[in-house]
Design goal:
By secondary structure, the chain is an all-alpha fold. Helices cover 85% and strands 0% of the residues.
Length: 187
């Protein structure tokens, strides 16, 4: 587990709640009731992660729309030279987004391990974790496809620009040669 302020805070809270659970059990409270504070903390975490999953799914939808836009631009004859990412800024931004999303997944996994280390298992926690991991995977896969589409679009656009430049240079050279022949014939 990596050191993260969220993990450290949650870990401290879980330790305190675990001590409280032990105290409640020793005081004679049934195990189910003594376990209630940990269950409530887990429920709160699950609700928070469900919200994060929904927000992350919306980010994934935006990335999908960008992917469709890039694919449409690449297919359009008029827009072949639009949006060339020469400085790789867009791809770097997408990569940074992927790294951030993956770090959230690691954090989510760390929290699940914290609950497990406190001896707490929950089908809800497992389901929320799986859902979050699936959303992260979908989002990262779509972002990777977007990066590949940008790369492919840029390669084709740059190749076409180079071809157009070469054709223009050949035309200019031909015109210059024709002009030189005409000048020699008139003199």
């Amino acid at each position: 587990m990596r050191h993260d302020p969220i993990i450290a805070g949650l870990s401290g809270m879980l330790r305190k709640i675990k001590r409280m659970e032990d105290w409640l059990r020793r005081a004679g409270l049934p195990a189910v009731l003594a376990r209630l504070p940990v269950s409530l903390l887990c429920l709160n975490y699950c609700m928070m992660m469900s919200g994060k999953s929904m927000r992350l799914a919306r980010i994934g939808e935006r990335i999908s729309r960008w992917l469709r836009t890039v694919e449409e631009l690449a297919a359009s004859e008029k827009a072949k030279f639009e949006m060339i990412d020469l400085d790789r800024g867009m791809r770097d931004d997408i990569e940074a987004t992927k790294r951030t999303i993956l770090s959230l997944r690691e954090l989510c996994d760390d929290v699940a391990r914290l609950f497990a280390s406190a001896g707490y298992r929950s089908w809800l926690l497992d389901r929320v974790q799986r859902r979050f991991a699936d959303v992260v995977d979908d989002c990262c896969n779509t972002a990777t496809r977007l990066q590949q589409a940008l790369e492919s679009h840029d390669r084709r656009a740059l190749a076409l620009l180079r071809q157009m430049q070469a054709e223009q240079q050949a035309a200019d050279a031909s015109a210059a040669a024709h002009q030189a022949r005409s000048a020699l014939q008139t003199s």
